[in-house]
Amino acid sequence: MGLRQAAEENPTGKIKEDEKLIQEVLSGNADAFAPIVDRYKARVFTLAYSMLSCREEAEDVSQEAFVKIYKSLKTYDAGRTKFSTWIYRITYNLCVDHLRKRKKTAPLDENMPAASSKAPEELIAAADRDRLIREAVQNLPEEYRVPLVLFHFQGLSYREICVVLKVPLSIVKNRLFRARKMLKEKLSGGESGEM
Amino acid sequence: MKCDVYEENIMEYLDGELNAVKKTETEQHLKKCAHCSEFLSAMQQQYEMLSALLLLSPGQDFTQKVMSNIGSKKADDGTTDITKMQIMPAIILVAAVLALCIPKSGHLAGVVPAAINFAAWFAVMIKGLSGIFNAVLWMMDFAVKMLLDLQPSMYFLETIPGVLLNKYPAGAALIAAAFLLECFLWGKLLSPGKIEQ
Ligand SMILES: [Zn+2]
């Protein structure tokens, strides 16, 4: 049975390393922030891309997220939140702000799929099936897409997703459930009913 | 429909979040329900596909860009936050109050050290967007010093928190140097009578 293994990419050793780097940054060594960026940039960018569906915007918001993380690092409380969860929360909030602004300036469909001309190289290089799944995920409504991405790509637990999205556990469960069902429909619909 | 509940349980089971009681229940149900067994295998497939996807990578120079972005906003870091906005005027106030206990004379003698101090701080601060904010603060500081004629020891009061707030090794060295120079100049410029008083 494909039970979810410890999908956590952050075993104790890495958390310790994070804490050490954070302390270094806080004590004035800004260069210690670079390894933090390296460690989390793909996860931050993936979350931003999943919410914004545009590579350039995702990159800009990810930049903004890291600047914000750097600036508010001293308010981070390791006793209360996992560093990764805190980072996702900041990224998520910035994306939400960005979507709000985008709605005001140009009323785009927030659920628009990634335009194929703008598809990231990873997508082109990846197998067709991968592209299909990614597109299917990207086509889910935002409130279902984000918990799914946080769970599968970022390896967050239900409770961590609650913290990032600031919604109760029952909602997280429900949205994940609905997201999977929708995804199942989409994927079976796209391949002559066969999964 | 009853199976809806089991579908949810199946998902939680795959997520590793289903409790033991429900797990046994669900396993029992799976044995006799073809629909849910099918649902389970479809979900498993979906999970495998999703977990096979890699994270997306941002552009090559992403980290570099972040580092230069925070570099340009470095001074801004401490300055825009409330702590510093409150601490700086507080330091000036404390220095001013202490200064009241010191005999005043030779106002002009304060110009050179105060200007050096101002320049040193401004050089550190101007790196960030908050240069103007700091400039205003230090103008105030300058004015207070001019009016109250602070002695070198007073500069020390703001040097330590200043260094701590800025966390700049280079800035700290600059301020320390400015402080030493100030002490020296104060000694030279002020009438000996005042220092000894
Ligand atoms: Zn059933």
How would you sum up this structure, described in words?
The complex is a heterodimer of chains A (195) and B (197). By secondary structure, chain A is mostly helical. Chain A is 68% helix and 0% strand. Chain A is built from nine helices and no strands. Chain B folds into two domains: 2-52, no CATH class; 71-190. Chain B is elongated and about 95 Å long. The chains are: A mainly alpha (195), B mainly alpha (197). The structure holds zinc ion (ZN). Residues 3, 6, 29, 33, 35-36 of chain B line the site of zinc ion.
Summarize the structure.
The complex is a heterodimer of chains A (195) and B (197). Chain A is mainly α. Chain A contains nine helices and no strands.
Q: Architecture of the largest domain in chain A, according to CATH?
A: Orthogonal Bundle
Q: What small ligands are held by the chains?
A: zinc ion
Taken together, the total number of domains of chain B comes to 2
Low confidence ranges of chain A: 5-9, 107-118, 122-126, 190-195
User: What profile does the largest beta sheet of chain A have?
Assistant: none
For the secondary structure, the number of strands of chain B is 0
State which percent range the strand residues of chain B make up: under 5%
Q: How much helical structure, as a percent, in the residues of chain A?
A: 55-70%
Mean pLDDT of chain A: 82
Q: What Rg of chain B is obtained from the alpha carbons, in whole angstroms?
A: 33 Å
Number of helical regions of chain B: 11
Poorly predicted tracts of residues of chain B = 72-85, 126-131, 191-197
Percentage of residues in strands of chain A? under 5%
**How many domain units of chain A?**
2
Keywords:
heterodimer, A: 195 residues, mainly alpha, Rna Polymerase Sigma Factor, Chain: A, Arc Repressor Mutant, subunit A, 2 domains, 9 helices, globular, disordered C terminus, B: mainly alpha, elongated, binds zinc ion
